[in-house]
């Protein structure tokens, strides 16, 4: 069945009763995932936590960015396709149909993780910055998003791991990235594998 060009996400709802203290205490990296897909409500809350609009009237986000450049885009790679997260509309936009999960990393588990996020910086949005500053601040900004993902996952009982081991030359064309777009890191997310 063809995948829709856009997928609306339900309004994001954080896990009831979750506390920051519990999320900080239980945050960790995991590399073994169940094949169970994330339901739309969980995916919506995950993406909103990562890089959603928390002050929509001023278009500010759940994660900070240097000089409020907001140069990051979150790509979402599932068994159905690769999508880009549209935080303003809280929806996914298809960029490439098909299962590209294996191409998001160099470790075996990435092919089976239900969701692989790819954090991509559009350096063209970092006006007036030197190339050193673009590299530095886009990495820092991606780190803020990655930690939001870790904390959401800890709160929601999901596993995740942020990954620098990405074959950027292989993955960039699959995501149809423009020359100024750089993959910073990827992050695998899923329910923990059964013990
Ligand atoms: C920038 C960065 C890159 C990382 N790259 C990888 C990676 O490519 N593969 C991997 O399995 N873990 C990767 N990790 C996860 C670390 O190995 C992990 O955070 C570390 O072992 C500490 O474990 P903890 O997260 O459970 O505290 C990375 C972590 C960071 C912050």
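Sequence proposed for the structure above (195 residues):
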């Amino acid at each position: 069945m063809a995948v829709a060009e856009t997928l609306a996400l339900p309004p994001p709802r954080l896990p009831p009763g979750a506390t920051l203290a519990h999320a900080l205490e239980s945050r960790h990296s995991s590399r073994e995932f169940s094949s169970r897909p994330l339901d739309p409500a969980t995916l919506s809350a995950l993406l909103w936590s990562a890089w959603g609009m928390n002050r929509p009237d001023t278009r500010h986000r759940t994660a900070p960015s240097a000089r409020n450049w907001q140069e990051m885009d979150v790509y979402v790679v599932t068994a159905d396709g690769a999508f880009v997260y549209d935080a303003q509309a809280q929806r996914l936009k298809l960029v490439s149909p098909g299962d590209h999960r294996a191409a998001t990393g160099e470790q075996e588990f990435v092919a089976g993780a239900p969701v692989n996020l790819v954090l991509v910086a559009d350096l063209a949005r970092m006006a007036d910055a030197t190339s050193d500053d673009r590299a530095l601040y886009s990495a820092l900004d991606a780190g803020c998003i990655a930690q939001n993902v870790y904390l959401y996952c800890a709160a929601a009982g999901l596993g995740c791991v942020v990954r620098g081991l990405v074959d950027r030359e292989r993955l960039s064309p699959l995501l149809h990235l423009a020359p100024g777009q750089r993959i910073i890191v990827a992050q695998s997310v899923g329910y923990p594998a059964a013990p």
